[in-house]
Amino acid sequence: MGRAARVPMAGSLEETGRSARLFRHRRRIIYSELALTIAFTLATALAFTERDALASAPGFLAGWALNLLVLALCCILPWSRIPSRWVIVMPLVDFVAIGLSRASAGESLAGVGLLAAFPVVWIAASRVRTRTAVAVSALASLAIIWLPLALRAEPVTFDELADPVLLPVLLAGLAWFVSALTKENRRRQEALRASQAALRANVEAGRARERLLGTVLDTVSVGLLAVDAGGHDILMNARQREAHAAAAPPGNDDPNESELLIFGADRVTPVPPEERPVRRAIRGEDLEAEQVWVGSGRGQRAFNIYSHAMHDDDGTFAGTVVSFNDVTELVLALQAKDDFLSNVSHEFRTPLTSILGYLELTLEREDHLPDGVAGHLQVARRNAVRLERLVEDLLAINAGSFRVDPVPTDVGRLLADAASSGYVRATHAGLRLVNRAPSSLPAVVDPVRLGQAVDNLLTNAVKYNRRGGSITLDARRGEDGLVIEVEDTGIGIESEDLHRIFDRFFRSPTVRATAVPGVGLGLLITKTIVGEHQGSITVTSERGKGTCFTILIPQPAPDGVRP
Fold it and tell me: What is the pTM of this model?
C-alpha cells in the first residue's frame, strides 16, 4: 500500500524534472537567436535611414526577414522531438541571412558582416568539436565576404579577395576561444555535478548510517551515553533517556547531573555530585561495574556503570562513552537469595542445637548403651557439629562478621589430622591420599578455620576424583609465607569456569550432570577463611587431568613485623 503510493509521486517528480530541462533547452535556443535578431533589426533600421547607400534594399530586407523566420522557427519547433545535433542548422541559416544583407548593403554598410559573430558564438558554444566550429566559422565568414564579389558583373581581382580576409580570421579565432572556453566550463560543470552527486550520495549514506546507528542503539538493552570533553551530551539512546527520566526529581523534567537522584549501595545515601560515575567518566576515569541506585521509592533501579574514554590522535581527551546496565532484578534476586539463606540457616540452628544436646546427653550414658552404638552416635555428633559450623559460617558470611583468630600453631600436625580424616573417605572411594607436609611446621594461623579450609579442599579432591586416582597434600614455609597445596588427578575444571568456582552456590555444568552431591559453598567458605588470614587461594586445572589448589598465608617476620 505504501509502495503504491510512492511510485506515482516519484514519476511525477521525474516528469517535472524532464519538463524543466526541456524548457531550459528551448529558452537557450530562443535567447541565442533573439540576440542576433535584435542586433539585425537595429542594423536594418540604420540601413533604411541611409537607403540611398544600399545596393539593394529588397535584398537587405530579405536577409532580415530570413532572420525573423529563423527566430519564429526557434520559438515554434518541438525541440524535444528533434535531435540536438540539428540545432546547428539555425546559426547556419543565419549566416545565409547575414550574407544576403551584407551583399545588399553596399560599401557604406559593410560592417553588417560583423553580425556573423552571433552565429559563430552559437556554433562554438554548441557541442561540436572545436576544429569543426573554427572551420565552419571561417568558411561561412568567407562566403559572406565573397558573395557580393561573386554577384558583381566585373571581374574579381586577387586583392579584392585577399583584403577582407581579416574578418574570417577574427571570427575563426573567436570560434576557437568560445569553443575552448565553453568546453572548459562544461567540464567544470560536469565535475561540479559529479561532486554534488557524490556529496548527495555521501549525505544519504551518512543519513542511512545514522538511522542504522540509532536503530541499533535503541535496540540494545543497555543505556548508552556519549559526552564530549566539555561534558556535553552528544548521543543518548532510548534506554538511557528512560533511565535519565527515572532519576529525575518529581516535578523536574530536565534536571542537570547534580540534581539527579543517585544513591549508593544502601539505596539511601546520595552520591555527591563530584563522585557520581558520569562526572568521574568526564574527568577521564574508566569505570568498571560501578553500581548505583537511581530514582526513589518503589521505582528505584540499580545500574552497573561502565565507561571508556575517547582520545584524539595526539592523545588529548575527547570525551567518553558511558554504558548503564540495569541490574535491578539481579540485585534483588541476590538479596532475596541471601535473605532466604539467612532465614534457612536460622531455622537450622534450633533443631541442630537440640540434636547435639540429646546426642551429648546420650553419650554421657555410654556405659548403658549396647555395643557399637556409641561409635555410631559419635559419627552422628561429628556430622551434626560440622553442619552446625557450616550454618554458623553462612550466617557470619552473610552478616559480614566472619572472623579468624590466628595463634602460633603446628601446621604439620594440623595437616596430619586433616589427612587422617580424609584417608578414610579416600580409601572408601578407591583413591590414594599422600601427605607430603613436614611433621612439624610452625605458623601463625587459626587452627580451627585453617583445618576447615583444608578439609573442604580434601573433600572436593575425593568427590571429584576417579577410582584409582591420587590426592597429594603438601605444605612449606616460603619467602612469602605459609604455602599449602592440595593436588588431585580428578576430572578437572573447565577453563571458562575457573573464575567462578569461588562464587556462592556455583556448580559447573559438568558437575551438575553427575551424581556428586554438593551445594557450592565449600570453596566460598575456604576462600573467606584464607582471605581473613590476609592470604590468597589460587587454582590451576586441566580438564581430564586434575586440579591443584594453592593457599598462601603471609607470616610474621622474626621481629614480629609482617614481611
Answer: 0.48
